[in-house]
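Notes from the 1:1 (GR / supervisor)

We went over the backlog. Supervisor wanted to see one worked example end to end before approving the batch request, so GR pasted a single chain during the call. The sequence is below; no edits were made to it. Supervisor asked that the structure be written out right there so they could see what the output format looks like.
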Amino acid sequence: MAAQINPSILSADFARLADEAKAAEGADWLHVDVMDNHFVPNLTLGVPVVESLARATQTPLDCHLMIEDADRWAPQYVEAGAGSVTFHVEAAAAPVRLAREIRAKGARASMALKPATPIEPYEDLLAELDMVLIMTVEPGFGGQAFLDIMLPKIRRTRELISKHGLELWLQVDGGVSASTVERCAEAGADVFVAGSAVYGAEDPAAAVRSLRAQAEAATATAAWACAH
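Structure output shown during the call:
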């Protein structure tokens, strides 16, 4: 089971985004946090920056929309060049319709859940998705400490994915670092968003390789992966 490392440009130097994208060479995706200062108490970037970034890097963009009215705005990020678009289920009026629209436009559709949002009510939606994102911090700011209490939720999500035989990626975002990535992988995650752990490192590309190696080693002995 291959682990994917998605560096979060929220932790990069916004004045040098093209260079920062290149600095994390070898990353599977670049994670782009879009915040509107309504759904979360922070404001970052929007469609024009995503368009520019898509032109500046060969690494596909994984856009995480922490915004209100996701049904209206998410499709525009596919048009801007994102290869994967994640909407928060708490901000989507019609998540199935939205996931289908994202897919129809040619991107991977992903659904994110805040720490307090359970996965179980959305079991029947999983087949409509390409990825589920379990937030391991409260969304809105980078650099937060990993919430260990999310590990059981990651396990339950992986169990639901396996129960239905889905080829669904399970992403974690928040406080992912050398000290937490193995626990996330053991619990069932296979896509890891890392911000300061990559962009706070002296060599971001080396940090990506190291995190991937840790995650893959943990996955190799994880019960869920062996069963898979």
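Supervisor's comment: Residues 5 and 27 are 6 Å apart (CA to CA).
Batch request approved.
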